[in-house]
Each structure stands twice: as structure tokens, then as C-alpha cells.
Amino acid sequence: MAPVMARKTRRTGDRKHHTGTTSPQPASASEGRPPRVGGRGGARLASAFELVEKFPVLAEARSRLVRVAKRRGASPETLSPIVETDLGLTVVILRTANAQGGRRGNGSVPAAVESLGPEGVVRAAQGAIAYDFLDIEGAWGAIPEQMRRHAVATRAAADRIAEIANLPARDDLAAAALLHDFGRLVLLCLYGEYPKLVADPTLSAEERLRVERRELGIDHALVGGVLARRIGVPAEVATAIECHHAPDATGAAAAVGLADQVAHHSRGDAISVAGARARANALGIEPAELRNLLYEFPYATAPRPHATEPCPLSVRELDALRGLAAGKVYKEIAEEMTLSASTVRTHLHNVYRKVGASDRAQAVLVARDRGWI
After folding, report:
1. Element (H, E) at 210
2. Domain for residue 153, yes or no?
3. 90 within domain boundaries
4. Is 82 exposed, middle or buried (0-12, 13-18, 19+ CB in 10 A)?
5. What is the DSSP annotation of 269-287?
6. Is 178 helix (H, G, I), strand (E, B) or coil?
7. What gap in Å lies between CA 182 and CA 178, rounded to an integer?
8. What is the DSSP string of 71-124?
9. What is the band of 309 on the pLDDT scale with cuts at 50, 70, 90?
10. pLDDT digits (tens, 9 = 90+) for 73-90
11. Is 104 in contact with 94 (CB distance < 8 Å)?
């Protein structure tokens, strides 16, 4: 991969940024461009990775995170939603948690926060470079806020898609959605011509990816997967990032790809209709559900509860509870599950007992609050 990058870069003729030292070459404040890296081959690529791993965090998000983390009783449930409002914080928290004591494999923000503890979260956040909403003259210019907004919108869309398609591991999916485009930051550091290559607003995400491959010999999704592995996330999360533009994507990769499409559509960007339909189909999302998703987003979104507490319910009990949540009566649930109404009733009484609920409404509320349905 590195030789391809180096060879393509030399062909552009932009030599002043690509010879000599391998240390980052930040742009001046007045330029407001991404930092650039020099050197050749693997050393130059490594420098770009290091820059992105230290991507700035939003000052407001960091301030809120530190304030909450210092309160008595701070927990992953209270800290994780704040981290997930910012791409930079997500990167620094995951990277720090996976670097401590050689502990790799934290693939979600709640897992990373729990691993670090409130004090570790504060240290990691305070050690990061920060930017402000209105400050666009730093080395990265307006890019951090642009990337943050799209990352958060994609995460919100992924939450809704996971709910519709009943997907597992939603906290890991949220991390993949937040990080899905951060490979673009590496390309911005490596190639001065990159913004012009992908500037055409009529191009869909898939078409821009093809431009990247044709002109640079690499694409941001593949680079994002490598970057995700560098910060220690599990292979499943890295693969979802790496493959989210693949036409035959399934599972988490399809969910992230569809979420990316939904987020772009909500702000008026061009999207691939065929790509959106293919990903929805791979996830078992009906055309009517896809239309509702595109119509409602981003208005009908709600915060996703983090599934940090293990679910005590069996698969059958969860299925019965989902039937209740959909407003179905025992007979309808029984027909759907090919069980008798009395068996469904037994399952639901077990649900009430296990979650400490007195009726169906309370059981549904508890399960939703804890991220089980």
C-alpha cells in the first residue's frame, strides 16, 4: 500500500511537501489547511497516521465531558454519550483505552470509558488538542467541525437502522459509524490535491471512492480500516469501516454504509439510490421502512441507550417482548412466533419477573432504556 501511495504522489509533481523530513508540516493559521507530511513510503504514511490519531477534539464536548467525569457517580452511561458527540474524543478515548497495559480490543466508546474509568477519561481528554466551533483558522481549518457533524449524523442514522433491522452489538456499530470516514483525514494529510479530486457535489460517496482509487491508488475506507486497527479496535469494527462502501456489504458494514447514505441525503448531498436499496435489502429492511427512514431522518431521532448491562432475557422472551413493543396482542405474537398463546403468556410473565416490571408498558420501557430492544 505504501509504495503505491509514494509512487502516485511523486507523479503529481507537488514535491515541496514530499521530500526531506518525515515530520508533520502544519499549515499556517491563515491557510486553514490540514497538516501535511513529508518523506517517502511507509515513514510518510506513518506520519499521517500519527497526525490523525491526534485529531483535535471539540473544546465544548471536552469541557462537558470533564465536568461530568469529575462528579460523584460518573459512569459509562453518563460519559459515553458525551464522547460520542465528537469524532476527536471518540478517537482519543478508544486509542488511549486500547493502549493502556497492552489492552487492545475495546471496540465501543462505553467499553473504552469503562476501561479507563472517570479519571482516565479526564486525563485522555485533557491531553488532546482542542478546537472551538468558531475557530476555523487552526492547522486543520474547518475540517474538524465538518467531520464531526457528519460522523455524529451517521452514528444517529446507524442507531435508527440498528433498531429497524434488530442488529446486535449496537455500541460497536456506533463506534464504526463515528469513525467510518476518518481515513479521509489521512488522505488529506498525504495529498494536497485530494480536496479537488472529491469536490464535485454531484458525485455520490461510491463515485468519490472510485475517483480516489483511480487517482491515488487507495481509498479512504481501506485507509480507515487500517487506522482503526492501529488504535486497537476489534477486527469486526475495523472491517465495518473498511467495507462500508462495498456493493455486497452485509451486517455492520451494510448498516454503516446505509447510515452514511442517510446522513448525506439529510443534508442534500447526492447518494447512490441503488447502493441504498442494496444495503437496506442486505439488512432485511423493507422498501417502505427505507422510505420512512429517509423521510424522518434526522428529525425523528432519539438518544440510543448503551447496552452496558447484560440482557437477562432469552431469545424467545426478547421476541415476545418486541411483539408487545410493536403493539401486538398475545394471539398475534403467538402466530408470528409459531407458538401457542399460553406459551407466549408464560414468556412474557418471565420477562416481567426478570426486569422487575408490573405490566407490559413498564417492561417495554425498561428494555428500551437498557438497549435490549
Report:
1. helix 205-216
2. no
3. yes
4. buried
5. ----HHHHHHHHHHTT--H
6. helix
7. 8
8. STT--HHHHHHHHTT-HHHHHHHHHHHHHGGG-----SHHHHHHHHHHHHHHHH
9. low
10. 888 888 999 999 999 999
11. no
Residue 30, pLDDT > 90, answer: no
Q: How many residues does the chain have?
A: 373
Q: Which grid cell sits at 280?
A: 437496506
Q: How far apart are the first and last CA of the chain?
A: 41
Read off the C-alpha cell for 159.
442507531
Q: 276 lies in a domain? A: no
Q: Is residue 272 part of a domain?
A: no
Note the pLDDT of residue 302.
52
- Cα 369 → chain centroid: 21
140: three-class secondary structure by DSSP:
coil
Q: Identify which of 237, 233, 231 has the alpha carbon closest to the alpha carbon of residue 95.
A: 231
What is the domain-level CATH number for residue 335? 1.10.10.10
And the C-alpha cell for 39? 518523506
**Residue 173 pLDDT exceeds 60:** yes
Range of the domain at 360: 315-369
From 107, 131, 155, the end of a domain falls on: 131
Given 109, 131, 153, which residue is the final one in a domain? 131
Q: Give 219's DSSP letter.
A: -
List the grid coordinates of 188. Answer: 488529506
Of 79-88, 231-240, 349-358, the range with the lowest mean pLDDT is 349-358
| Tens of pLDDT, residues 208-229 | 999 999 999 999 999 999 999 9
Q: Structurally, how many domains does the chain consist of?
A: 2
Alpha carbon distance 80, 71 (integer Å): 14
312 and 298 Cβ atoms separated by less than 8 Å: no
CA distance 262 to 353: 39
Residue that has been written with the C-alpha cell 432485511 in this structure: 284
With a threshold of 0.70, does the pTM exceed it?
yes
